[in-house]
Specification:
- The chain is mostly helical.
- It has eleven helices and no strands.
- The longest helix has about 45 residues.
Amino acid sequence: MKTISRIYTALIFIFLFAPIVILLVFSFNEAKSLSVFSGFSLKWYRELFRDEATLSSVKNTLLLATSAMVISTVIGTAASVGIQRLRSKFYRSVMNTVTDIPMTNPDIITGISLMLMFVFVGRLFGAGTSLNFWTMLIAHVTFCLPYIILQVLPKLQQMDPALPEAAMDLGCTPLRAFFKATLPEIMPGVITGAIMAFTLSLDDFVISYFTSGNGFQTLPIRIYNMTKKTVTPKMYALSTIIFFVILALLLLTNLTNNDDARRMKEARRNQNQTKT
């Protein structure tokens, strides 16, 4: 049984990562072929950095992802604190359900509904162009918020509620107590949620496609437009770079979670020693 389970696990990993390995290998291929590796070359990486249109779409994507990450992290952390302080279990359950809707709702439904809302509001105020960078930013913040709350709320529930109370007893205002006592305790959740928001915004296509205007094009939309003709190996090189950036962010997230788990284990051990 162990041999079968190992073979099954290996097949799953091969199925998941074989396409990525092929992409990485052929991003260094000298020719355009995806069947014959003619020789190692950095040709397509040089071509990538000469493509102004692609680099502009990368810059737009990073600007959008960073803006969405910062705004959704601030709003999501504040929302988590508010949900945690609700005394009524019913209202807390309602808020948890409402915040879960953007995660469970299909992207195409979210994209179409947001597009209709933006067009309606734009027509209502007589705007000539309803869809632009700001509509995409609002849409990205909308679907990133639940992931921030999902990461921060458990950290608030694990935190000792006496910490902010002790800070206020020592003379801190509620806001200062939050920054001095609460925020350091929930920081691992905030960082993990921010990284998730950044990667989700970086990767999004469906919602971006429905809420984007003519003057602002992200990388997923540009790649989609390229598929109508042909995807050049420059995109393999760009995908390789993005893969390693996301891999680094995931490693950072795991390291943060491991440090947080170690701190909690040490705190529990110290509490047990104090009790004995």
